[in-house]
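Hi all, long-time lurker, first post. I run a small reading group and we've been trying to get comfortable going from sequence to structure in the token notation. Rather than ask abstract questions, I figured I'd post a concrete chain and ask someone more experienced to write out its structure so we can walk through it together at our next meeting. Sequence below, copied exactly:
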Amino acid sequence: MSSRQRRAAPVLLCLLLLLTGPAAAETQVLKPEDLRPEDLRPKVWHRATAVVDGDTLVLDDGRELRLVGLQAPKLPLGRRGFRAWPLAEEAKAVLEQITLDRRLGLAFTGRREDRHGRRLAHLQREDGLWVQGALLDRGLARVYSFADNRALIVEMLARERAARAAGRGIWGHPFYALRQAGAAAADIGSFQLVEGRVVEAVRARGRVYLNFGADWRTDFTISIAPKAWKLFEAEGIAPDDYRGRRLRVRGWLKALNGPSIAATHPEQIEVLAE
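-- Answer (accepted) --
Happy to help. Here is the structure in token form:
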């Protein structure tokens, strides 16, 4: 190395440190499991002018916003023959209390709109309150996640568990009680949290089936499509990892060779402690 090259080396090292230091950290993309409420950095701000129900509100630009990652008790909202879920009015009242005429930051962490054209975002009040977390802490919503919006789900599940253990809000009402896999057929067509032990884990034509009984034609099953299973593989999960384990899965119960829930991402399934 020449004397000129030796003199230039420290300068080049300093430049490299500058480029890979704090400035680079600001552009780092966090994985969903690494994101925390304090990591939210809203870039769009609005005021809430009206509340539709416990998880939907209207902003000052006239557009509706759906709180991503959770499901509050539902109101009829003009749907014929639909009965309000228990505590739906209470959930709406709390959302009104914590958001109406408040400056709210929208943090987009995945898909930004649903099929109805509503915005999908995490909401953070100007004083730092995380709206999703506040509703879960009060027991006025359940975690309701999607494969294209997985950020903060681990944190939200933890808050949901704490509220359920304390019997707060919806967790004190039998309508929202945890269902057991053996009795899941009674709730076809509804969104439920179902618990049970996996008897068999099999893969057929690329689809993974987690069977909770000896007869897959009638017993409860979790079904995971090939495309969805890639997300599980990315987390290092194999079908046999679920065999013999007690699980809690959330989703819409459908009739498919017995009661079944389709899982689209790993956070939808919780492995329970023995």
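A couple of things your group might point at:
The two ends are 63 Å apart (CA to CA).
The first helix runs from residue 3 to 20.
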